[in-house]
Design brief:
Layout lengths: L2 H9 L6 H9 L7 H8 L7 E4 L6 H14 L13 E4 L3 H14 L7 E4 L5 H10 L3 E4 L1 H9 L10 E5 L1 H6 L3 H10 L5 E6 L4 H10 L4 E4 L10 E8 L4 H10 L6 E4 L3 H13 L4 E4 L5 H12 L5 E4 L14 E4 L6 H8 L9 E8 L3 H10 L5 E4 L3 H18 L5 H13 L2 H14 L21 H10 L16 E5 L9 H12 L6 E6 L4 E5 L1 H10 L12 E3 H6 L7 E4 L2 E4 L6 H7 L15
Parallel strand pairs: 1-6, 1-7, 2-4, 2-5, 3-4, 5-6, 8-13, 8-14, 9-11, 9-12, 10-11, 12-13
Antiparallel strand pairs: 15-17, 15-18, 16-17, 19-20
Length: about 600
């Protein structure tokens, strides 16, 4: 161990297991993050833990430190691998594989054998790895349950279970799988729940499967991530993609991540960026695991500099050199905003987060930022003149920093100067440099100023008299290509998105990620389903018993085209007839408080 490693190890808390302290020192961890310090120094060595910490705060290393004493005891090394001693559950394949990579270097000196069980990978290879034996298993809920059901995974020796991003697993509908897995593990175990937030579902899960859990909030919920600078970029409605292109061109970032709501939007933007000459890859749920792994590796090794992704990439993606996150679509809620943005500003690196906001969505963007307790600098999109000036500075820097010609080059340089004027050589160099850079897009000028200056007059007057109006939870994103449906509940039935959303998801077999805007009218509510889920949703709602009796869910066009309910009927000579639309004698007679209605008998009747 070098002197640098000695100094780094000496600065780490003494409570960290020696084998892990050596690995941390070798990696240059001279200072731990708040959640890592809490795991290393807190007085909860063998207790169950319910931990909330902001994304990008080093949670993987934190729970690796926390379970070391439980898995190893006082030993320096693991015995021969058999049934797993530890289990890590993560919501996505990418996060599970990232966790494995992190723990492999952290526990390298202990001889720990790890196995992964994730969807999209060869189940037979996973089964053979489990048969050979492992000290730690990392997996996703569905695949872990499959291995347990088939008898390939025995949790009888497990001493510690970690649920990473527990709130995300509940959002994705994994509660039943989690309950099955935790029930298969010994009751005498440690259970650690790590979550960005602790909603009611997480609290209920903790109450059922943890014993006297110690609640730890590693970072105050009101603290803005100090390493991320938030920018709000106002654009015209039809120029969002132009703004994305110019933002990428105007940035110093070596790599960038661009988020869209839907797969179709990802495909479209990826194609546009590729046509403009960007080295770009994409990530979405429809891609095979091998395609997703190749895309991420391309970003990590620098072959690609831009990744366009759906929210499948918002959790668990670790791109070490990521400097810029762009929200091409306004995030639908504070959690989505924070988890997307948390891909940058990690491990002490500075990052920039840009929200591309069309004029008609600025209110939604303000609400999401307010709910997330974030402040953003309002700015205009970069113009062509700014980007061209930047290009000229870069070209000049390249020329100035070029070294003197060496012996192999000198002869040809002299030949060039003898035959071509220096001005023409410089012009050729300039043209070559410009041709290698994407052409910026022309954007309509849009005044920025103070966001509050453009609020509706009534809202500004309210704030002047009573202070800012309270932020409300947005009802969902406007999805590109989304399909509209209606449900026969509205304001008169006290409809509220909080209980409409679960009803919609249950009826159509979708998750809340597939539901966009929810717009409540007097007698019905219109809601948007993502394009890729709309066809299945339309089939699911036709099932009998999908919703409560008397409630109807249908495609928006179908419900609007239904004829209105017939008006109350009156009787004439004992036979029913419709009330005249113009309010004739029959209607007048019905309203008389006293007396017998005068009804003329039709001709030809007795």
């Amino acid at each position: 161990m070098t002197m640098t490693d000695d100094a780094a190890r000496a600065s780490l808390p003494a409570a960290i297991h020696p084998a892990l302290a050596a690995a941390l020192a070798a990696k240059g961890y001279s200072q731990l993050t708040p959640v890592q310090v809490e795991m290393a120094t807190g007085d909860h060595r063998e207790a169950d833990l319910l931990v909330s910490a902001q994304t990008g705060s080093g949670k993987t290393v934190a729970f690796g430190i926390a379970i070391a004493s439980t898995l190893l005891g006082s030993a320096e090394h693991f015995d021969a691998a058999g049934r797993p001693l530890g289990l890590i559950i993560a919501p996505t394949r990418e996060l599970a594989m990232q966790v494995q990579r992190e723990l492999d270097w952290l526990y390298a000196a202990t001889g720990m054998m790890t196995a992964t069980c994730v969807g999209g990978m060869d189940m037979r290879k996973e089964r053979r790895a489990l048969e050979r034996g492992s000290h730690l298993v990392v997996g996703t809920p569905g695949r872990l349950r499959d291995h347990i059901t088939k008898g390939a995974l025995d949790l009888g020796a497990v001493r510690a279970v970690v649920l990473d991003e527990a709130d995300e697993m509940l959002d994705l509908g994994f509660r039943e799988d989690l309950e099955f897995i935790l029930s298969a593990a010994p009751s005498e175990r440690r259970t650690l729940l790590f979550s960005a937030t602790v909603p009611r579902g997480i609290a209920e899960l903790a109450k059922i499967f943890q014993r006297d859990a110690v609640r730890i909030a590693a970072t105050a919920s009101t603290e803005q991530h100090a390493d991320i600078e938030y920018q709000l970029m106002l654009v015209r409605r039809d120029e969002r993609e132009h703004a994305v292109i110019n933002t990428l061109l105007d940035s110093d970032a070596t790599s960038a991540l661009v988020f869209c709501h839907t797969r179709e939007a990802v495909r479209h933007l990826t194609a546009r960026l590729a046509n403009r000459g960007f080295s770009v890859v994409s990530l979405s749920g429809e891609m095979a695991q091998s395609e997703r792994s190749n895309a991420l590796q391309s970003m990590r090794d620098g072959r690609s500099h831009v990744c366009v992704a759906t929210d499948v990439a918002a959790r668990g993606i670790d791109l070490p050199n990521l400097d810029l996150v762009i929200h091409a679509d306004v995030p639908s809620n504070p959690a989505t905003l924070l988890h997307r943005s948390g891909r940058t500003g990690r491990a002490g690196r500075k990052g920039i987060c840009v929200l591309i906001v069309p004029e008609n969505r600025r209110g939604a963007a303000q609400r999401v930022l307010a709910l997330a307790k974030l402040t953003a600098t309002v700015r205009a999109a970069p113009a062509i003149a700014e980007i061209e000036a930047r290009y000229r500075r870069q070209i000049l820097d390249t020329a100035v920093s070029a070294g003197e010609p060496d012996e192999a080059e000198a002869a040809f340089v002299n030949e060039l100067l003898a035959q071509v004027a220096p001005e023409r050589i410089a012009a050729a160099f300039l043209r070559q440099q410009l041709a290698a850079r994407p052409v910026p897009e022309d954007l309509s000028p849009l005044p920025v100023g103070d966001m509050s200056a453009r609020k509706p007059k009534r809202e500004r007057r309210f704030e002047e008299e009573r202070g800012p109006s309270p932020a409300r939870e947005p009802r969902g994103p406007d999805m590109e290509g989304g399909v509209w449906f209606t449900i026969s509940l509205g304001r008169k039935q006290r409809a509220d998105p909080k209980w409409l959303l679960p009803m919609i998801c249950k009826a159509g077999g979708v998750t809340k990620r597939d539901v966009g805007s929810i717009r409540i009218d007097d007698t019905e509510t219109r809601f948007e389903i993502s394009a890729e889920s709309a066809a299945d949703f339309a089939q699911q709602i036709k099932r009998p018993g999908g919703v409560e009796r008397g409630i109807v869910i249908a495609p928006a066009g179908e419900m609007r085209e239904k004829p209105r309910q017939a008006k109350p009927k009156f009787k004439r000579d004992g036979k029913p007839f419709h009330k005249p639309a113009h309010g004739g004698k029959a209607a007048t007679a019905e309203r008389r408080p006293t007396g017998k209605p005068k009804v003329r008998k039709p001709k030809g009747r007795a």
